[in-house]
Each structure stands twice: as structure tokens, then as C-alpha cells.
Amino acid sequence: MTTLITNIKELLQVRDTNVTIVKGDDMKVLPILKNAYVMIEHDTIVEFGPMEDCEDLEADKIIDASGKIVLPTWCDSHTHIVYAGDRTQEFVDRINGLSYEDIANRGGGILNSAEQLQNASEDTLYEQASKRLTEVINLGTGAIEIKSGYGLTVAAELKMLRVIKRLKKEFPVLIKPTLLAAHAIPKDYKNNKEGFIDLVVNEMIPKVAEGHLAEYIDVFCEKGYFDLEDTKRVLEAAVTHRLIPKIHVNQFNAFGGVALAVKYNALSVDHLEELNSEDISVLKDSKTMPVALPSCSYFLSIPYTPGRDIIDAGLPLALATDYNPGSTPSGNMNFVVSTACIKMKLTPEEAINAATINGAYAMGISNQYGSICRGKKANLIITKSIPSYYHLPYAFGDNLIETVIINGKVF
Length: 411
Fold this sequence. Notes:
There is one protein chain. By secondary structure, the chain is an alpha/beta fold. 35% of the residues lie in helices and 22% in strands. A hairpin with a 2-residue loop joins β2 (32-41) and β3.
């Protein structure tokens, strides 16, 4: 099966060589071809170029993209889309003055989601998550990481990961599963955090590794949740079982979590709403990707990740949604890109780079996803007719996507 997309007004993120990460000033550069075409064979991009070079090309299917923008699908490297129910009441509680920490301290937050998830069947979780996944694909997401973390028991965490495995089997998008066992301290371990860490290290991680249910490990390294020593224990167990770290860190406090993550070769450090000069320095000497989650800042009214400082320091930056029921009940990467421009002062070029190539890097897949490159997967967004790609972040409330192609097929 071959597909030819013709008359593309602007073809974004075109790379003649397989760039897998962009940093610092290079993030301001977004390679573009105008009046272009893309040729797809099966699930792969095999050729692209200016329209005058495609006169003799034939294909089983031709898509006319006159007046439209084509770009790689978004790569969302941080989500929690497998959960039960919602936390609407907590949204109202915050409007009435309670903080995220206040809600958590009275048994809400993650513990609320854990209780709902423990009581939900596997089929119910799959049905709810599949609807969310369908929605985000239609919004342009072509690769996604999904975390556990709302189980907080061995049985419930394994249940979540089995649902993620089922999603991987049933959906065409690439899904990367992550074990986030150390997400919060369960009620049964309220006065025995060390006992819960023992459970994570000695039971959860070995069982997940044995069943090949996750590729990554995550920890909520934050005051009131898991401190540096807790995080170190989890990461050491993960390394033993060949799970790659991706860490929640610096959401509310900066106290050395970034340096610890880098020490254990974390693929990414996510949140970073609070960041200091020491954190930036240690990231400069690493292969760890900083990941900003601007929708979370928007929803919780907390500071935004200082993305401008990160990029100006010569570092890379990725963007992701943090889709979850408590702090970001949305998986709309288009809004994330817009919010990064509006609130974090990224240029449209920087934001698109952060949501494509660098988002793919934060999942370990940028050799195959995140850019228009010969030999990469044919995961593409075709917009509606719009003036330019600047319109994507500018018209933040509009759905400007007309067609999503996953593995060479219209979704």
C-alpha cells in the first residue's frame, strides 16, 4: 500500500538525516518545505520533496493537502490515562481555596484515584482508557507513554499494566509502559513508608520485570511523598531489573532530585516547575531530557517550568501532557504547544521541536518517530486549511487537525 500526500502548503520538521534530539539554539530551527509532497510505503516515509519532483510518482492512494500543513504526530512522553472515574469534586475544592497538598492530606488526590481503581474491573479500566486514547490520537498524538501508579497495591499495579499491555495490542500507536509504583504512600502504609518501599522493591518491581509489563520506572520524588533515599532505593532496584528511570521531580520543591535522577541515567526528568542553577548545571553534563508539563501548571495554578532558562542554557526540552484525573484531565498536545508559547515564552519552532523530536527522545524512540525523515514511521498530522504553522499555537481553542495518519493509515 502506497500513499502520496501532495500540494502540502508547509511540510514541517523535515530532516535529511535522522536527527534524534535538538538542544539550545537549534530548537529555534524548524526545517520546512513549502509546496511539498510526502510518499508513504506501508508504514514508512520513503520520500519527500518539492512538488516539482513528484510528477512521475504513482500511489495507491493520493491525498490532496492544498492549503494545509503536514507535520509529525505529537509524541506525548508523560501520561496517566489508565484510571477510574474522575476527581471533579477536587477541582471544585481547589476553586474554593484548598491546595493540591490540602486535598492530598485529607485522603484525596492520588489516594482517591487509587481507591477508585482498586474497585474497578480490568475491562472497565480498558474501556475508559481506550476512549481517552482514541481522543488523543484524533488530536494528533502518535506515540504515548502511559504510567501505572493509581494502584498502590501489587495486584492493582499489575492490573493497570495489563490494561496498558492490552491497549498496546489493540491500538496502532506506539505505547511505552512505565511502572510508577512509588506514586503516593497508601493508607495501609501511612505510618510505614519504609514498609511500602520494601513492597515496591521486593515484590512489585520483580513481578513487573518478570512479566515484561514495563520498560520504565518512575518515582514521585517530592516532599510529603518520596525523598531522595526512597527514590534511590527504587532506582537501584529498577537498575537491577533493567528498568530505565523517568522521574517526577521538582514539581513543588527543588531538593536534589534532578542530580539523583541524572546519577542513575534517567531518560527524562519531568515537571521541573521549580528549578535552580544546580539542576541546570547537572543536566548540562547528562543525556537526560527535561520535560515540561504546562497543562498541569495551568490546571493547578502553579508556576510553569522555566523552559526559556532551560533552552537558553543550551539544553533540550520536551513537552508532554501529564494527562491524569487530578492535575491535568486533558491529553490535548495542541493546547500544550500553545501554552508553552503563551506562558513559557517558547517560540512556535521551539514548542513544535519539544513536542515532536524531543518528546520522542524522552520515550527512547526518536530514531523512528518525531520528524519527517526517510525511513521513519509514517505518523503524520494533516491540518485544516490554515494561514501558517504559527496558527497552531495561536488559535489555542480550535481543533485545527483534519486527518491523523498512524503507521501509514488514516486513523
